[in-house]
Amino acid sequence: MTLHILVVGASDTGRAPMAAALLRRLVQQRGLGVDVASAGVVGHDDDPPEQEARAAMLTFGLDIDGHRARSATDELISAADEIVAVDSGTARALRARFPAAGSRIWSLGELAGRNRDVPDPFRMQVGAWMTYARELEAMLTAACDSGRWSAIAEPERIERNEAPVTTTPSLPATQPTVALAHVLRLLDLLLEMPEVLDWAAARMRIEAAIGPATQPRTIVDMASPYGGLLRAALALSATPPKPAQAVALRAAFTRLERPITADGLTWLSAQIGGWAALE
Predict the structure, then answer these.
(1) Confidence check: pLDDT of 151 > 70
(2) What pTM does this model have?
(3) Which of 86, 173, 214, 216 has a Cα-to-Cα distance from 138 of 20 to 30 A?
(4) How many domains does the chain have?
(5) For 63-75, what is each residue's pLDDT tens digit?
(6) Does one domain contain both 189 and 239?
(7) Does residue 145 belong to any structural domain of this protein?
(8) In this predicted structure, what is the pLDDT of residue 182?
(9) Per the domain annotation, does 272 fall within a domain?
(10) Are residues 133 and 191 located together in one domain of the fold?
(11) Do 99 and 13 have their domain in common?
């Protein structure tokens, strides 16, 4: 059977969509037949996620840009097999509002076996959002590892005769503009807050985006060989890039907003040749 889990936060624009995206990937990696959605106690209906939430999720290789907030309704609560509140306060509010669903409502801390609530990072800087996103992931992992959901949901790979899902970084879409937008946002974070960005993880995401982002748009577009040069630049950046190198990386990817010419290849080759000198 498919297990339907509803993650509920306060407004469905911050922790709830982040936790839902993280949980969705965790159950997919385990090959479980689990459907994950989110809502808010008083959802800011149709609002997009907070900008900091979108940026934090991008560093995890997850795109929540398309999410739109919604309020927890009788219909949503009734349709959920389990309701996961992002904190104990939200769990209490849900139990009071939906008493018939009380046995299906759990706080994330309860499921993870931890006496802990992940704070709401609203109005905090993106570094705090990234820290709390990592804590959400750790608690969701503990909840998954408890075997609670795997005992209920049948493995999808058995039902569909598929191989287990791997953890290789991937992108939610392959269109060049989408892949490029992901890279530019990561590089903006690198330039603005290098101390909070996990460069090793970000570098893997950027590497995964090069193929989709360098799909030729015209017959004369030299994007494909340009992609090889971008990979060479990343190979020289095993450690976090210096400020000038980060600026050069962003400039190199920005050139993909238009077809690449021979001049573009020459320019990037020169940048790579003097990479070590960039401070």
Answers:
(1) no
(2) 0.68
(3) 173
(4) 2
(5) 899 999 999 999 9
(6) yes
(7) yes
(8) 84
(9) yes
(10) no
(11) yes
Quick one: average pLDDT of 48-61?
89
Q: Which long-range contacts (CB under 8 A, 24 or more apart) does 185-188 make?
A: 185/55, 185/58, 186/58, 186/59, 187/246, 187/249, 187/250, 187/253, 188/250
In the block, residue with structure tokens 């106690």: 41
251 and 186 within one domain: yes
Q: Which residue, of 126, 160, 194, is where some domain finishes?
A: 160
**Is 214 found in the same domain as 156?**
no
Pairwise CA distance, residues 98 & 30, whole Å: 31
Which range of residues forms the domain containing residue 251? Answer: 176-277
Statement to judge: residues 246 and 152 lie in one domain: no
State the CATH number of the domain containing residue 106.
3.40.50.2300
Please tell me the distance from the alpha carbon of residue 12 to that of residue 213, in angstroms, as a whole number.
31
Instruction: Tell me the DSSP string of the chain.
Output: --EEEEEEESSSSSHHHHHHHHHHHHHHHTTB-EEEEEEETT--TTPPPPHHHHHHHHTTT---TT----B--HHHHHH-SEEEESSHHHHHHHHHH-GGGGGGEEEHHHHHT-S--PPP-TTS-HHHHHHHHHHHHHHHHHHHHTTTTTTTSPBHHHHHT-PPPP-----S---HHHHHHHHHHHHHHHHH-TTTS-HHHHHHHHHHHHHHHT--SSTT--HHHHHHHHHHHHHT-SSPPPHHHHHHHHHHHHGGGS---HHHHHHHHHHHHTGGG--
Q: What pLDDT shows up at residue 173?
A: 39
Decide which of 19 and 44 is more confident: 19
